[in-house]
């Protein structure tokens, strides 16, 4: 069963998309967007793409998306394995300073690519927000253990 996607564009953009689809050799916007979706999802189209340049660009975009996904997934795995205590107790800036270069090396080993520093900073913030409860629990356990140790 086919699904439909809606986009929000102005009338001018709508007509421009028609022109682009026609200039690239597609018979409709639907055919153009279906080809784009298939390339992004599978790295190839279900049918043919009339313009080789468009196919190359969409294929590159698909591979880029896969590479970024690999780097993000790897980052999250590494941080979960190595940096939760530092993030919980000292924050993401300290964790980034302590692990940033090591994380780049590990991502390169696993994915063959190196993310930008700004990507790493963003991913640290995303990690902190996704694992806020876990970080709070860790910090609370450590604080409770320190209090118990002081009481002895």
Describe the overall structure:
The chain has 152 residues and is mainly alpha-helical. The chain folds into 2 domains: 11-50, no CATH class; 66-150. It is built from 7 helices and no strands. The longest helix has 31 residues, at 52-82. It is elongated, with a radius of gyration of 23 Å. The mean pLDDT is 84.
Total discrete domains? 2
How many strand elements? 0
Based on secondary structure, the structural category is mainly alpha
Put simply, the count of helices is: 7
| Unreliable residue stretches | none
Beta-strand share of residues: under 5%
**Helix percent band:** over 70%
Task: Give the end-to-end Cα distance, rounded to a whole number of Å.
Answer: 67 Å
Overall geometry: elongated
One letter per element, helices H and strands E, the order comes to HHHHHHH
Report the sheet with the most strands, covering strand number, pairing sense and barrel closure. Answer: none
Q: Overall pLDDT, averaged?
A: 84
- As a whole number of angstroms, the C-alpha radius of gyration is 23 Å
């Amino acid at each position: 069963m086919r699904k439909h996607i809606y986009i929000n564009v102005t009338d001018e953009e709508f007509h421009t998309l028609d022109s682009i689809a026609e200039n690239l050799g597609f018979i409709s916007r639907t055919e153009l967007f279906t080809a784009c979706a298939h390339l992004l999802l599978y790295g190839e189209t279900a049918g043919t793409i009339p313009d080789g340049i468009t196919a190359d660009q969409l294929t590159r975009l698909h591979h880029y998306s896969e590479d970024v996904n690999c780097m993000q997934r790897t980052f999250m795995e590494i941080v979960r394995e190595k940096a939760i205590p530092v993030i919980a107790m000292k924050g993401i800036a300290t964790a980034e300073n302590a692990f940033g270069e090591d994380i780049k090396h590990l991502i390169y080993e696993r994915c063959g690519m190196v993310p930008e520093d700004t990507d790493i900073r963003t991913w640290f913030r995303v990690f902190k927000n996704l694992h806020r409860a876990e970080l709070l629990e860790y910090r609370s356990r450590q604080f409770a253990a320190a209090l118990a140790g002081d009481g002895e």
